[in-house]
Amino acid sequence: MNTITAAITAVGAYVPDFVLSNKVLETMVDTNDEWITTRTGIKERRILKDADKGTSFLAIKAAQDLIAKANIDPLEIDMIIMATATADMPVASTGVFVATEIGATNAFAYDLQAACSSFLYGMSTAAAYIQSGRYKKVLLIGADKMSSIVDYTDRATCIIFGDGAGAVLFEPNYEGLGLQDEYLRSDGLGRDFLKIPAGGSLIRTSEETVKNRQHNIIQDGKTVFKYAVTNMADASELILKRNNLTKDDVNWLVPHQANKRIIDATAGRMELEDSKVLMNIERYGNTTSATLPLVLSDFEHKFKKGDNIIFAAFGGGFTWGSIYLKWAYDKK
Ligand code: UT7
Predict the structure, then answer these.
(1) Regions of the chain with pLDDT less than 70
(2) What is the pTM of this model?
(3) Known catalytic residue: 116?
(4) What is the pLDDT of residue 1?
(5) Distance between Cα 319 and ligand 1 center (Å)
């Protein structure tokens, strides 16, 4: 019997229409386009303006885009993993709601939360279910409505984050394509440097926590930056070495889009030329769980069957890692 590998066989994406540019941010906090562009690489981000719509809205749109493009029957989906740091509600899984809304009524679903590494970890989980032979169609969605947890008076966070969603379908492959290797790590020392302090079981929501703005995301950007650069570069270098890949063997780097300088440092350590380093951070900013599938969606037309792709991410927690995947199809 052939070994089963787990391949990505389809991609979908969605970003809301409203564009929040650096120029507009200049009118909201003490910042400027030049600083944001040179320090992060971001020019604009998308925002879901509707107050009555949550992350599920973005996720449903991305999943429906994938279903339409791949022409699959939602009833065939076995499982949905919803990677998100901004669930619709603390309890009642967003993934479950999304599954029902897209008509995937034969699937079971749940949420996976690992901050900006949610999608990367989700790739590992989805692939493991496929490789085991247990399921045939696993839909992995990465979506975040970051605008729901961003304090638009805090220039350390509001310039970075945006809203968006992407989805990929994992299916069995018998030609050795798909996920080849992974290196995933986490370190709880990071939890104080990037967090939403209140609203969980540690600090219950109260008038006090609302008054103190403890339900917004806060970060010590400098510290997160330092750990992100080191760990994303280390993980990507390790994956190359462990799989005997040289820089010439790598076709594409799909990095988490948090800061162009973090991406440049990772690519530099891998000695990759710029043309292999995929970025759309200038248009979307950091969409947390959605960055990796949004890059896949934007550059899918360039990928060829057999291409070697390295994924890398770093996020709050801390969480980070790198995945080596062989692309499984040429886009029609
Ligand atoms: O996805 C994982 C989650 N997050 C990340 O990966 C984010 C990682 N961190 C970063 O991307 C960067 O640390 C930031 C973009 C958040 C900040 O960039 P930085 O180069 O680390 O800036 P800094 O905090 O060291 O500040 C440098 C200077 C300071 O001024 P002085 O003290 O040198 O006069 C800040 O007050 O820039 C100032 N500054 C700003 N100026 C204009 C900080 N934020 C801003 C701003 N606009 N938005």
Answers:
(1) 1
(2) 0.97
(3) yes
(4) 53
(5) 20
